[in-house]
Structures are given as structure tokens and as C-alpha cells.
């Protein structure tokens, strides 16, 4: 496929794009969900039951993120986006800021961001550096308690779905990178694109996934290798 035939490229990334930056994935052999019970730390019910545990879970990941740097995959995506003349929509399931640190202009964080909190009283979203605690105080309304990570938990509606739906309907190239295609609605995006019948679908992942057969092309290997290689192959 040549770049000349692309008007709008949509990229969806998952935890695999950040794996080589030292951030754990979720479902690989020592992934996060093998060490924590998803229901306890990534659901509203879990937060209500035990806010201390949820704060501990996210503080550990926020600390980990501070030491992480973008890898060649993040940088290759940003470099391509800067050179590409058409529309480029980067949707990420990741809550880290490595796409931004790698130079991407405006990633669509459909599952929120680790470096922000949201007040459950007034819904204000704000950047927050210190460790999260159940008695943190909202800078907007001054109320305490209910300051939660600005992260979409299971059972909650992902963010920016209108922007995402429009991009999926408009794109002529859809590239899924480093995702196990396990979590919905993101796992269903390739179906949405195929149903519209116009875009070429490409999967770049360490290994085959349950969704691999839905893609026109799959390239397997570490993101730091397959991502730069694929986007270089698009350039004339
Ligand atoms: C919702 C934030 C409804 C938290 C996360 C059907 C339709 C809709 C919903 C559902 C459905 N079926 C089930 C559901 C419910 C649920 C769901 O999907 N459950 C799953 C477990 C079956 N979905 C939801 O609850 C979603 N909400 O549907 O709301 C609604 C409707 C109306 C009104 C209100 C509500 C919300 C889901 C969001 C949950 N939050 N994250 C946090 O991060 O702490 S999900 C979590 O999983 C992360 O965001 C993560 O990104 C995401 C997906 O995982 P992956 O990124 O794919 O990571 P994974 O480890 O699985 O895979 C890594 C891949 O990388 C692997 O393939 C591996 O091979 C590869 N890899 C590893 N190393 C490398 C590599 N690749 C390249 N290079 C490497 N070096």
C-alpha cells in the first residue's frame, strides 16, 4: 500500500506498544492482571470497597511511568504523523503519556490518563503529580474523598467515542498495534472498520491474537521493530 492512496490513517495502540519502555502489559505472562484482581483495582465497585488498594495500585503505576521513556515505536509513529499529509488519528487504550513524550500531537486517550485525577463530586479533571490518597482534596471544589484516577474502569464508558466512531468510519487504513484484542469496545474497532468495507486493516503485534484473521496484513515482532518497519514501508 502506498501513502499516496491514504487520506486518513487511524492507529489503535494497546499496552504492547509501551512494553519495551518497561511498562507492564495486562495479560502477558507476568502482566498486571496476573498480579492484581481486575475487579478489585479497575472497577468503580472495587474503588468503593477499598480506595486504599486502588490508590496503591495506581500510585505504583504512576511511579513506574515516571521512570519510563518512549521507545522506537512511539517515536516512529510521531515521525510518520509529522510527515504524513493526510489526516492521522492516534487512538490509545493506554493510560501512559509515552505517545506524547515520543512526539505525538494529540493521542485520543479512550481509557483516560494515569497522570490526571477526576473529582467524583464536581467531575473536574486535573493533572496531579503527588501520590493519590483517599483523603486528597479537589483543587476546584475543595471537597475531599472521591478523588480518583482519571482512568476508565471496567463497566464505564470509554472517552471520546464520538470522535473515534467518526474516525473509524472515515479512515482508509486502520493499524492496531500491541493489543490483545480482548477489551471492548476497542477490540471491536477492526470489525467496525471492516463492516464499512473501505479500509485496509493491519495488525502489528508481538504474536498472533484472537483477532488476527480479521486483518488484511499482520506483522509479528516487537513494536520497536515492526512499527518503524511498517511505517517506513508506507513512505514513497
Ligand atoms: C464498557 C484502564 C459499557 C484501566 C482499561 C462488549 C462490548 C462492550 C463492553 C464489553 C463487551 N464485552 C465485555 C465488555 C465489558 C468490558 C470488557 O471488554 N471486558 C473484557 C475483559 C472482556 N469492557 C468495558 O467494561 C469497557 N466499558 O464497555 O462500558 C458501557 C456502556 C454504556 C454506558 C456505560 C458503560 C471499558 C473497558 C476499559 C477498561 N479499562 N484500562 C487501567 O489501565 O488501569 S482496559 C485495559 O485493557 C487497558 O486499557 C489495556 O490497554 C486494555 C486492553 O489491553 P491491551 O492494551 O490489549 O493489553 P494486553 O496486555 O491485553 O495485550 C498486550 C498485547 O501486546 C498482547 O497482544 C501482546 O502480545 C502484545 N505485546 C507484548 N509485548 C509487545 C507486544 N506487542 C508488540 N511489541 C511488544 N514488545
Structure write-up:
There is one protein chain. The longest helix has 16 residues, at 51-66. α5 (72-83) runs parallel beside α9 (223-234). The model has no long low-confidence stretch (mean pLDDT 94). The protein has two domains: 3-22 and 70-111 and 157-234, TPP-binding domain (Rossmann fold); 27-67 and 116-151, SIR2/SIRT2 'Small Domain', CATH 3.30.1600.10. The chain has nine helices and nine strands. A six-stranded parallel β-sheet has the order 3-2-1-7-8-9, sandwiched between helices. A three-stranded antiparallel β-sheet has the order 5-4-6. By secondary structure, the protein is an alpha/beta fold. The chain starts with 7 loop residues before the first strand and ends with a helix. The protein has helices at 32-35, 38-41, 44-49, 51-66, 72-83, 98-101, 161-170, 189-195, 223-234; strands at residues 8-13, 87-92, 108-109, 112-119, 125-127, 147-151, 173-177, 200-205, 217-220. It binds ligand BV8. Residues 14-16, 19-20, 25-28, 31, 42, 93-95, 111, 151-158, 178-180, 182-185, 205-207, 209, 222-223 line the site of ligand BV8. The site of ligand BV8 has 36 residues, from loops.
Amino acid at each position: 500500500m502506498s501513502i499516496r492512496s491514504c487520506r486518513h490513517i487511524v492507529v489503535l495502540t494497546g499496552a504492547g506498544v509501551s512494553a519495551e519502555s518497561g511498562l507492564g502489559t495486562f495479560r502477558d505472562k507476568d502482566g498486571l492482571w496476573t498480579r492484581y484482581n481486575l475487579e478489585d483495582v479497575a472497577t468503580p465497585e472495587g474503588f468503593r470497597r477499598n480506595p486504599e488498594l486502588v490508590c496503591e495500585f495506581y500510585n505504583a503505576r504512576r511511579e513506574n511511568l515516571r521512570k519510563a521513556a518512549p521507545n522506537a515505536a512511539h517515536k516512529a509513529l510521531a515521525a510518520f504523523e509529522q510527515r504524513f499529509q493526510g489526516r492521522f488519528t492516534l487512538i490509545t487504550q493506554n493510560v501512559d503519556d509515552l505517545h506524547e513524550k515520543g512526539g505525538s500531537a494529540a493521542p485520543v486517550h479512550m481509557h483516560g490518563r494515569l497522570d490526571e485525577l477526576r473529582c467524583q463530586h464536581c467531575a473536574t479533571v486535573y493533572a496531579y503529580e503527588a501520590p493519590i490518597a483517599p483523603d486528597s482534596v479537589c483543587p476546584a471544589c475543595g471537597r475531599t474523598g472521591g478523588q480518583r484516577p482519571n482512568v476508565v474502569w471496567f463497566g464505564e464508558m470509554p472517552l471520546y467515542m464520538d470522535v473515534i466512531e467518526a474516525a473509524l468510519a472515515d479512515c482508509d487504513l486502520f493499524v492496531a498495534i500491541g493489543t490483545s484484542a480482548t477489551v471492548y469496545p476497542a477490540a471491536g474497532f477492526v470489525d467496525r472498520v471492516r463492516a464499512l468495507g473501505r479500509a485496509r486493516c493491519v495488525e502489528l503485534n508481538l504474536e498472533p491474537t484472537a483477532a488476527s484473521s480479521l486483518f488484511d496484513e499482520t506483522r509479528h515482532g516487537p513494536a520497536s521493530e515492526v512499527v518503524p518497519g511498517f511505517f517506513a514501508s508506507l513512505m514513497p
